[in-house]
Each structure stands twice: as C-alpha cells, then as structure tokens.
Amino acid sequence: MKHGKNYRKSKESFDRDKDFSLEESLAMVEGFSKAKFDETVDIAIRLNVDPRHADQNVRGTVVLPNGTGREVRVLVITRGPKEQEAIDAGADMVGADEYLPKIKDGWTDVDVIIATPDMMGELGRLGRILGPRGLMPNPKVGTVTMDVTKAVTEAKAGRVEYRVDKSGIVHCPVGKRSFATDALTENVKVLFQELIRVKPSSIKGPYVRSVFVSGTMTPSIRVDVASLS
Fold first, then answer.
1. Is the pLDDT of residue 224 over 90?
2. Which of 37, 96, 120, 193 has its CA at a distance of 20 to 30 angstroms from the CA of residue 216?
C-alpha cells in the first residue's frame, strides 16, 4: 500500500518496535499530521482466543463514558405503546409498517436498529440485508429488548459493539482526535476492563497479546498492555 507524505512522516517519527504507555500513545496520535476531517481514534486488541469455539467468540457492548463523538441514527422497529416510548427516548425513526418494506427494498440509511422481541419474526426475513451491514438486532448486544428507553439512550450516549474477528482481534472506535487525551484514555480503559470481564474461562496463559491505537489516517502505535490495567 502506498501512503502519503504526511503518513510516512508520522511513521518515521517514532520507534515502531517500542511499546508506549496508553497516555503516550494517544498523545502521539494527537500530535500526528491531521486530515481535513475529525478522524476517529481506533483500538485493535489481539486476544488469545479462537473464535471458532463458541465459548471464545468474545462479543458484547459497552457504553463509553465520553461517547464516540459520532452522531448515531437510531431506528426502533416496534408497534403499539412502545412506539411512543421510543420517540420519548430520542429515537430518530420509529415504526414497523413504514420501515420494514423500505429495508426489504434495500434501504439501510441508519446506524443502529433496535427491535422489540415480537418484531423479530418479521425482521428475521431481512437478515440477508441487515446481517452483512451489522444492523441485525441481537439480544446478546441489547438491541432486541422490551426496555426501549435504555437501549435508545445507551446507543445515543456512545454504546459500541465489540466482537472478535476470525483472527482473534477486537477492533473498536474509542472517540475522535478532537477529544482530550484524558477522555480517550478513559474510554479505552472502560473498553479494556469490559474485555477482561468477559474473558472466557477456558483461556490458558496471557489473554491479551497486543494492543494498537491509531487515527483514521495515521500509523498505529503499539501500546504497553500493562498501562491499561
């Protein structure tokens, strides 16, 4: 891959074989050349898990205390009294009869879909559209629930979904480059503590193999795992 001048300059400004503390790493990302937009800060955590085993398929959600810096568009699929509850909670779009046909026709202009359990029979038929886009509601991550108010509030407040990929890596946004380093640090530590909380009991040896942080347009920096504790 061919990188631009600013990327190469940033890459040459630090020792890529060295581990830096979390605070140092985030400060370095902040100091790199900036793009013309507010870049997302991402973290990649390689875990000592094998996702092919069901008990090691680490997945869930966590609410970042300082949010993600992103405006989240929430659609609630429901009927009846839960519609008003969703509206009062701040959902951007609410309903079933209006949105199910649109989704069937390929519409997915939304960031999070929340559904009440009674709607999953109809939504299940749309899995081939919603699944590949990561939009299918799932009770494991709190998007299939009767507590619509909590689900919408958390989605708006900065709830992120984490899921280990086939290589054993969790990729997750933790904020924007415009965030203060302290805010990013707090977000990362909350995510890290959540991953430790859901550590599979079958894991032997070190659970976290490596951690890297980066901006959308910056090189990645290796983080000293001990600094996240």
1. yes
2. 193
Q: Residue 159: beta bridge partners?
A: 63
CB 187 within 8 A of CB 175: yes
pLDDT at position 1 is 62
Query: Which of 156, 183, 206 represents a domain boundary (last residue)?
Result: 156
Residue 133: give the domain boundaries.
74-156
> Please, where are the H alpha helices in 52-98?
82-89
Which class for 159: exposed (0-12), middle (13-18), buried (19 or more C-beta within 10 A)? buried
User: Predicted confidence band at 117 (pLDDT cuts at 50, 70, 90)?
Assistant: very high
Please check whether residues 114 and 140 belong to one and the same domain.
Answer: yes
Degrees to nearest 5, angle at CA 49 with 40 and 43: 10
pLDDT at 51 over 80: yes
Query: What DSSP state is assigned to residue 144?
Result: B
40/189 Cα distance (integer angstroms): 17
pTM, 2 dp: 0.81
Average pLDDT, the chain: 93
For the chain, where are the alpha helices, taking DSSP H only? 5-11, 22-31, 82-89, 99-104, 120-123, 127-130, 148-157, 181-197
